[in-house]
Amino acid sequence: MILGVIADDFTGATDVASMLVRAGLRTVQVIGVPDGPAPEADAVVVALKSRTNPAQEAVRDSLAALEWLQAGDARQFYFKYCSTFDSTAEGNIGPVTEALMQALDTDFTIACPAFPENGRTLFRGHLFVGDQLLSDSGMRQHPLTPMTDANLVNVLQAQVQDRVGLVHYDTVAQGAGAIGERFAQLRGEGVRFAVVDAISNDDLRAIAAACVDLPLLTAGSGVALGLPEVYAAQGWVTPDASAAELPSVGGCAAVLSGSCSQATNGQVQHWIDAGWPALRIDPRELAAGRPVAEQALAWAAAQSEPVLVYATSRPADVQAIQAELGVERAGQLVEQCLAQIAHGLVENGVRRLVVAGGETSGAVVQVLGVSQLRIGATIDPGVPWTQVEGRPLLLALKSGNFGTVDFFSKALQQVP
Ligand code: ADP
User: Fold this and answer.
1) Which H or E element spans position 295?
2) Quick check: CB of 116 below 6 Å from ligand 1?
3) From the CB of 330, is ligand 1 less than 6 Å away?
4) Mean of the pLDDT values across residues 48-70?
5) Beta pairing, strands 383-388 & 350-356
6) Taking the CA atoms of the chain, what radius of gyration do you get in angstroms?
7) CA 313 / ligand 1 centre spacing (Å)
């Protein structure tokens, strides 16, 4: 293993993993910290669920992940957080970074959530989402991690003991050598955390090259894009053009959707409009104790084409159901039903399964007993096909807002 990644949430883990695969690293994602040894791969990504946890819990989980990854002899470690740096003054990015640095006995690291391909750029220490400062974007109203300051030097400084510094864009634009010199200068001044500007993929590559000797990087998924090239130049790894290849598994295909996001509503409608088989799950039927999952499985078994089973509804309908059943109960009934259907579909021969919704994906992964995923080709930014390690089963797990309107059929076409 060359690189050990600790990701603070599930879809974030898949995002960084697909970035590494794209550049030729054979990458495996594990869900939580496994009991056994690290799998055979160039990069291993541990998916935690720590983004909004209190700092103490996040530190504990991250250190456990680090310890497990260290047994795999990785040359570099990477703490992956969101490209919108989701955390408040009480947030855990700072404390987790400090704890990882101490465990790795290092006194310097970077902080760079930039992901220009998705509109996240960092200039003069300020994070932009598209054309807006982070603090003017929708992130200002985030229910869990409202971001009211776009100056990441300030945001991070509020979370750590030692000094935070900045590598200006002017320096980044001069390339890896200049960035490295600035690191040395900051380090000499007692700075331990360098926020690094980046507005393009070339900047991310230069940053990755300048970080080659750092035991720990902290970043969004963007910086990972430059790492495989750096490792290859060091002779640590030979990038594998077929790293994203997954075995052909045959069998049937299906789509399950429990996300009610705008993007997913569009994707479900697109499937229905195309005339492909689709079945709607009604939470009221579930609450009434009807055998909805059994009926859905019988219906699916009678179809000759890939099916879509969905609970996806428009906001007004979701609100009505939630008012009737309660938010949590409605969510749980639907998640349990879709998980039961996933289990039945796989028993009935489905080998390629697309799941829409972060929580829904979590429920499906759990019922299928999945602990390791090998990462394959990207379908849309941030969503790759994955193979359940050691099983002839492919999963595409899509968080709510990702994917183009034809995502479901596009995903299935990629793995015929
Ligand atoms: P996203 O990634 O879009 O946030 P999630 O799967 O994480 O999707 O969350 C969607 C939640 O909404 C899940 O708990 C799901 O069970 C629930 N849900 C799905 N359909 C309905 C519905 N028709 N009414 C109420 N809740 C629903």
Assistant:
1) helix 292-301
2) no
3) yes
4) 93
5) unpaired
6) 22
7) 9
Which pTM value belongs to this model?
0.85
DSSP 212-251: TT-SEEEE-SGGGGGHHHHHHHTTS----TTTT------S
Quick one: angle between helices 55-70 and 93-103, nearest 10? 30
Question: Residue of the nearest CA to atom 4 in ligand 1?
Answer: 400
Closest atom of ligand 1 to 318 CA is 24
As a whole number, mean pLDDT of residues 373-400 equals 92
3-state helix, strand, coil in the chain (%, to 5): 40, 20, 35
**Above 70 in pLDDT, residue 133?**
yes
For the chain, domain boundaries: 3-233, 252-414
> Would you say the CB of residue 382 lies under 6 angstroms from ligand 1?
no
Amino acid 143: pLDDT: 66
pLDDT band of 402, cuts 50, 70, 90: confident
Longest dimension (CA), the chain: 70
pLDDT tens digits, 288-321: 999 999 999 999 999 999 999 999 999 899 999 9
Residue whose Cα lies nearest atom 5 of ligand 1: it is 357
Q: Which of ligand 1's atoms lies nearest the C-alpha of 282?
A: 23
Q: What is the pLDDT of residue 4?
A: 98
Per-residue model confidence (pLDDT) at position 51: 85
Q: Is the CB of 11 under 6 A from ligand 1?
A: no
Q: CATH 3.40.50.10840: does it fit domain 3-233?
A: yes
The CA 305 to ligand 1 mean position distance, Å, reads 25
At 272, which helix (H) or strand (E)? helix 262-273
Q: Is the pLDDT of residue 154 over 70?
A: yes
Residue 116 DSSP label: G
At residue 145 the predicted structure's pLDDT band, cuts being 50, 70 and 90, is confident
Q: Does domain 252-414 have CATH number 3.30.2350.10?
A: no
Distance separating alpha carbons of residues 290 and 282, to the nearest angstrom: 10
Strand blocks (E) in 125-234: 126-129, 132-133, 163-167, 191-196, 216-219
- CA-nearest residue, atom 26 of ligand 1: 331
